[in-house]
Write a structure and sequence with these properties.
Number of strands: 6
Structural class: alpha/beta
Strand order of the largest sheet: 1-2-3-4-5-6
Shape: globular
CATH superfamily: Aldolase class I
Strand content: 15-25%
CATH topology: TIM Barrel
Order of helices and strands: HEHEEEHHEHEH
Number of domains: 1
Number of helices: 6
CATH architecture: Alpha-Beta Barrel
Helix content: 25-40%
Length: 164
């Protein structure tokens, strides 16, 4: 689809908010243009990125949600740490946590980069690996000022394979 075709489909949905996500949207050649044009069309525009591609050229009107990959994901070496410096008060960083090691890692990264002071921070348990209640207990015990999130697509469509 072209950017114009995407904008036409979005307009037909009559929604005020658009989130561009799915794998790594910044890997798509027209992603930056699409984000800017969504903003120009006065949509509240969000980008959810896996954090492996530089976000400094993303339109400043876009709310960025950057995933930081934890060790259990096998992808933690792909984190582009410079992206965390591009986060502002409207932005968020999300950690998907599978176990206590991931939790400790997320807590350390949040402290090292002063994320809790600069932006929203979400800790989300991996479905079927870490009960949300256990993650909540750790957050409460450490008195962390983070939000507990769940992977809603896995709750709403538990049997879906791949994207939804």
């Amino acid at each position: 689809m072209t950017v114009d075709e995407i904008l036409a489909r979005v307009a037909g949905l009559k929604c005020p908010r658009v989130e561009v996500t799915g794998g790594e949207p910044l890997a798509q050649p027209a992603a930056l243009e699409l984000l800017a044009r969504l903003c120009e069309s006065e949509y509240e525009t969000m980008l959810e990125t896996n954090g492996s591609i530089d976000v400094t050229d993303v339109d400043g009107r876009v709310m960025k949600v950057i995933d930081v990959k934890c060790p259990a994901s096998g992808e933690s070496d792909a984190n582009l740490w410079a992206n965390l410096q591009a986060l502002g008060p409207r932005d968020e960083v999300k950690f998907v946590i599978a176990d206590r090691e991931d939790y400790d890692y997320a807590r350390e990264i949040a402290a090292l980069h002063k994320l809790i002071e600069r932006c929203g921070v979400i800790f989300s348990p991996v479905v079927d690996e870490l009960p949300a209640s256990r993650l909540a207990e750790w957050i409460i015990a450490d008195r962390l000022d983070v939000r507990l999130g769940v992977q809603l697509h896995k709750v709403i469509w538990p049997d879906a394979e791949g994207g939804v």
